[in-house]
């Protein structure tokens, strides 16, 4: 820790227990607590309660109430916490700070649904987020965001304006080429189209750009991954053995092109029984955890097979925005862990170990 007394001159003695309590907070996303340099302002009220203003270096605002409660309990005074998200000023590409590829070994596992919900969850956690639909075999992001029928627009005939929906900026490869032509795509052609969309879209400033990759681990996916300056990748799988075998190929593909795999998300992980409320592991259990453990990566989330997820997708609604839906918290937690592991990976050159259970 550096000169706290300098940073908070005057009543530093009163503030130190607060900083210690913040540093002691632990969760999957805040795996090493709240660092002193994130604390921008501390106000001590006349009743001795505290008001703290943080600047978080990753999307994580959704945990502030929990952090406040932890610190309040530790100090036995009321502590309210507010924060802004401000990622370090290093850009991955133009004014985009982090690019995350969302991939899957096979199609139909819920990759696009998860990509949209993760993007929205990052936005709700306080970040500026865009989503780029690069799935040449079935571009579905416009549909998932309720943008069907939308036509790309340009102001100067050189750059495309991204679409805006649900507080996300969005662009799709489907606007360039109709999906039924997918069979003619080759690696260089697909990566060229992806580059064109990245370069020629006026994204403005973004904290995170989520790229919904085409499913599979062949030449096309490999070439596309190589051409994008990605900070990391997330692999979506279902619990079936075949999907897991393909997810493993996905990990191998990203290792080959030196893109860190930030974690696996097991989608359609279980089904909650409408009668007894017990989780029913229809497609098998613990497969993703075992795979993750073998490769030293975390499982970011286990998403249930839920009718509401499909229904809201079909209506162009993003279920992680619906606070009444219990699944919303699961997506937001996954987004925080993803954002924090990207941060720690870049600042400490290693990922923080999170939620890896034994075989
Ligand atoms: P992919 O991008 O892997 O091809 P999609 O995201 O298009 O898969 O999802 C395929 C289908 O499965 C869609 O109808 C979607 O609504 C549905 N789906 C995805 N995830 C879930 C889930 N967790 N529960 C219920 N339906 C889901």
TrEMBL record:
BP term (GO), one = iron-sulfur cluster assembly
Taxonomy, superkingdom: Bacteria
The record's GO molecular-function terms, alphabetically, read:
4 iron, 4 sulfur cluster binding; ATP binding; ATP hydrolysis activity; ATP-dependent FeS chaperone activity; metal ion binding
**Where is it found, in Gene Ontology cellular component terms?**
cytosol
Q: Where does ATP bind?
A: 105-112
Tell me any Pfam family this protein matches: ParA
Alphabetically sorted, this entry's keywords are: ATP-binding, Hydrolase, Iron, Iron-sulfur, Metal-binding, Nucleotide-binding
Question: Known InterPro entries for this protein?
Answer: Mrp-like_CS, Mrp/NBP35_ATP-bd, NUBPL-like, P-loop_NTPase, YlxH/NBP35
Q: Which family does it belong to?
A: Belongs to the Mrp/NBP35 ATP-binding proteins family.
Q: What does this protein do?
A: Binds and transfers iron-sulfur (Fe-S) clusters to target apoproteins. Can hydrolyze ATP.
Instruction: State how it assembles.
Output: Homodimer.
What is the protein named?
Iron-sulfur cluster carrier protein
The protein's organism comes out as Pseudoalteromonas lipolytica
């Amino acid at each position: 820790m550096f000169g706290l007394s300098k940073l908070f001159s005057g009543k530093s003695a009163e503030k130190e227990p607060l900083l210690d309590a913040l540093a002691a907070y632990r969760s999957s996303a805040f795996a090493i607590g709240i660092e002193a340099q994130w604390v921008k302002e501390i106000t001590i009220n006349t009743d001795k309660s505290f008001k703290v203003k943080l600047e978080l270096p990753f999307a994580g605002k959704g945990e502030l109430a929990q952090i406040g409660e932890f610190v309040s309990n530790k100090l036995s005074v009321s502590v309210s916490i507010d924060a802004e998200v401000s990622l370090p000023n290093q850009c991955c590409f133009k004014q985009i700070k982090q690019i995350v590829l969302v991939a899957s070994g096979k199609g139909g596992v819920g990759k696009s649904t998860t990509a949209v919900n993760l993007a929205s969850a990052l936005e709700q956690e306080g970040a500026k987020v865009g989503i780029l639909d690069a799935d040449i075999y079935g571009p579905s992001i416009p549909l998932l965001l309720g943008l069907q029928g939308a036509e790309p627009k340009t102001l100067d005939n050189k750059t495309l304006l991204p679409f805006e929906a649900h507080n996300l900026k969005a662009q799709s490869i489907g606007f360039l080429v109709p999906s039924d032509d997918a069979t003619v795509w080759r690696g260089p052609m697909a990566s060229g189209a992806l580059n064109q969309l990245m370069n020629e879209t006026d994204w403005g400033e973004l904290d995170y750009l989520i790229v919904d990759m085409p499913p599979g681990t062949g030449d096309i996916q490999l070439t596309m991954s190589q051409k994008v300056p990605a900070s990391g990748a997330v692999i979506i799988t279902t619990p079936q053995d075949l999907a897991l075998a393909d997810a493993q190929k996905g990990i191998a593909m990203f290792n080959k092109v030196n893109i860190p795999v930030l974690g696996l998300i097991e989608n359609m992980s279980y089904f909650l029984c409408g009668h007894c409320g017990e989780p029913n592991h229809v497609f098998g259990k613990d497969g993703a955890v075992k795979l993750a453990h073998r490769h030293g990566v975390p499982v970011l989330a286990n998403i249930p097979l839920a009718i509401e997820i499909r229904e809201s997708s079909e209506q162009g609604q993003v279920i992680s925005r619906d606070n009444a839906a219990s699944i919303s918290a699961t997506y937001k937690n996954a987004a925080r862990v993803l954002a924090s592991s990207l941060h720690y990976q870049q600042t400490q050159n290693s990922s923080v170990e999170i939620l890896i259970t034994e075989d």
